[in-house]
Amino acid sequence: MSVRPRISFARQVLILQVGVVVVVAVLGYGLVAWMLDGRLRDQYGQRALTVARSVAADPEIAAAVAVDDPGGLVQDRAERVRVRTGALFVVVTDGRGLRLSHPNPLELGRHVSTDPSDALAGREVVRVERGTLGLSARGKVPLYGPGGRILGEVSVGFDARAIDRELGRLLREMSLFVAGAVLLGVVASAAIGRRLKRQTLGLEPYELVELVHEREAVLHGVGEGVVAVDSAGRVAVCNDEASRLLGVAPERGASAGGLAPEGALRDVLTGRRDATNLFVTAGDRVLVVNRREVRRHRRDLGAVVTLRDRTDLETLARELDSVSTLFDALRAQRHEYANRLHTLSGLLQLGHSEEAADYIGTLMEDAARRAPAPDNLPDPVSDPYLRAFLSAKSAVAAEKGVRLDIGAGSYVPGRVADPLDVTTVVGNLVDNAVEAARLGRRRPARVEVELLGDGPDLHATVTDSGDGLPDGLREAVFDDGVSTRDTAAGRSRGLGLGLARRTARARGGDVTFVDAGTGGPDGGGAVAVARLPGVLGAEAVR
After folding, report:
1. Domain boundaries, the chain
2. pLDDT(339) > 90
3. Percent of the residues in the chain that have a pLDDT greater than 90, as a whole number
4. Is the pLDDT of residue 241 over 70?
5. What is the pLDDT of residue 462?
6. CA-based Rg of the chain, rounded to a whole angstrom?
7. Class assignment of domain 11-166?
8. From 3.30.450.20, 3.30.1320.10, 3.20.20.80, 2.40.37.10, which CATH number describes the 224-308 domain?
9. Domain 375-539 has what CATH class?
10. Which of 21, 214, 332, 416 has the highest CB neighbour count under 10 A?
11. 270 and 263 in contact (C-beta within 8 Å)?
12. What is the DSSP annotation of 384-420?
């Protein structure tokens, strides 16, 4: 079990970023301060050297030094230069290094406190040295007389404390900039931390790792297909079961609309349609689809689409529907014969023997009319399964007030080799035709089924007396969820015809409406045609 750290990851990142900003700012501040200090010392030294050169270039000073300055000219000129330039001192010496000028008159005639040998040897010197007046940046130049002879030196110095004051002023200005940079870095780091926290939905790294492990375990452990779609309609997650059901293995970031062909399933995947336990077809599979939008803190994160395979259940349901149809037919016949017996019993109990005899005659005529055709007439449908199926559908249709007839042109000499597909296709067409005839305006309501065997292929034509298909729905009724009775029935329909077409097309056949119906009081209803290759076997044995 993971242990939650004492400090959150976002705060650790903030502390680390702030620390880096502060360290970089301090190092930069120190480096700039060191460079400024060296630059200022060099500038003050060059300034001192320039002043020293200007004093050494004065011919009157050179002439006075040559005669040991008996009138104090050098001291007077040097002090005026010192005051005018703000220098700490302007010292002029003779060739022995004895002072001829100094801010302190008591130092006149004494030997200078620093080594004058370089300047007396003809070399200019810039140094930071400590003398009688303290630490200073000084420049020393030789003092030349007539003929180029070195008479002495001129030394000019600027107080080092002035350098420190200038450096302090510059560092104070730079401190404001560094403080602003650190503050900006802290604010930027805090903003990055908040964005990071928002991007990770407030989860810590260890929580993200656990979430990934749990997600993988859940996605590949569940028996349902799961497709996660982001807010832009791209596939974020598609587990193995979803890939199997959809027949595709999409890459992360692929468009969700490319996972399914045009239809209800694509509309659900792309978000154009909500789905709660919606039955759709994908290839030869029947799927139950659900779509759930995902939001966190009012932010749209996309949606999760779950897919459940109900193909096996649908197959069982179709088989059960066939059994239920036969049962309904038997129940309808039992109900019909019970009513006839009750009527006959009532007539006899009331003493109406003549009426009872007439009623029995009527029943016999009806039985003769329903009796099978003589053996010398061709039997149009020889397969017992198909005959029982149509008989059951006829009985159910009669209960709904619809007459179901077998077309005169029907002829199916072979036996049904795949009754499940025949039930799915023909049964759905007949059920839809019966409903259309029952809800239509024409009476009597009737449906005609014409079956024709062509070798192993079965052709079925189903015609009803209903009001026909509305404009624009001739092909749309085969899409999942599309029905002409949604508003009338008050519930979701629209799976049967699509399933019938897909079942036929899976065998290389098809289901179409060759006539959508006129919908008028004198016109005919819709005409559906189905072609089922390979559903018939050998011819029936006579």
Report:
1. 11-166, 224-308, 310-371, 375-539
2. no
3. 4
4. yes
5. 92
6. 55
7. alpha beta
8. 3.30.450.20
9. alpha beta
10. 416
11. no
12. HHHHHHHHHHHHHHHHTTEEEEE-TT-BB-EEES-HH
The pLDDT, as a whole number, for residue 408 is: 83
Strand partners, 454: 457
**In whole angstroms, how far apart are CA 324 and each of 330, 396, 448?**
10, 10, 22
Mean pLDDT of the chain: 78
Contact criterion met (CB below 8 Å) for 227 and 237: yes
Average pLDDT over residues 281-308: 79
Give the span between the Cα atoms of 367 and 37, in whole angstroms: 126
Phi, psi of 324 (to 5 degrees): -65, -35
Asked, as a colleague might, if the bond just before 384 is cis with ω within 30 of 0, I would say no
pLDDT, position 461: 92
CA distance 408 to 403: 15
Confidence of residue 531 (pLDDT cuts 50, 70, 90): very high
Residue 333 burial (CB count, 10 A):
14
Question: What's the pLDDT at 363?
Answer: 66
How far apart are alpha carbons 218 and 129 in whole angstroms? 80
Phi, psi dihedrals of residue 311, rounded to the nearest 5°? -65, -45
Helices 9-56 and 59-66: crossing angle in degrees, nearest 10, is: 70
Do the bridges between strand 445-454 and strand 402-406 make them parallel or antiparallel, or are there none, so unpaired? parallel
Q: What is the pLDDT of residues 63-76, one digit of tens each?
A: 888 888 777 888 88
Strands 414-416 and 445-454: unpaired
Residue 119 CB partners (closer than 8 Å, separation 6+) = 125, 140, 141, 142, 153, 154, 155
- Confidence label for 124 from pLDDT (cuts 50, 70 and 90): confident
**From CA 250, how far away is CA 17, in angstroms rounded?**
39
Please compute the mean of the pLDDT values over residues 17-33 and round it to a whole number: 82
pLDDT in the model for residue 118? 85
Closest CA relative to residue 325, chosen from 419, 219, 199, 461: 419
pLDDT per position as a tens digit, 372-381: 433 333 367 7
- Rounded to whole angstroms, how far apart are CA atoms 517 and 519? 6
Hey, do 224-308 and 375-539 end up sharing a CATH topology, with the first three levels equal? no
Residue 533, classed as helix, strand or coil, is: coil
From the number of C-beta atoms within 10 Å of its C-beta (0-12, 13-18, 19+), residue 423 rates as buried
* pLDDT of res. 19: 82
At 216, list the tokens: 């993988």
From the CB of residue 277, how many other CB atoms can be counted at a distance below 10 Å?
A: 9
Q: Token pair 């023909």 is at which residue? A: 426
Cα(379)–Cα(200) distance, integer angstroms: 75
* Residue 393 tokens, joined: 């559908």
CA distance 460 to 452: 6
Q: Which range has highest mean pLDDT (77-91, 208-222, 471-485)?
A: 77-91
Q: What's the N-to-C CA distance of the chain in angstroms?
A: 77
C-alpha closest to that of 434 among 405, 464, 410, 461 = 464
pLDDT, position 126: 85
Amino acid at 225: G
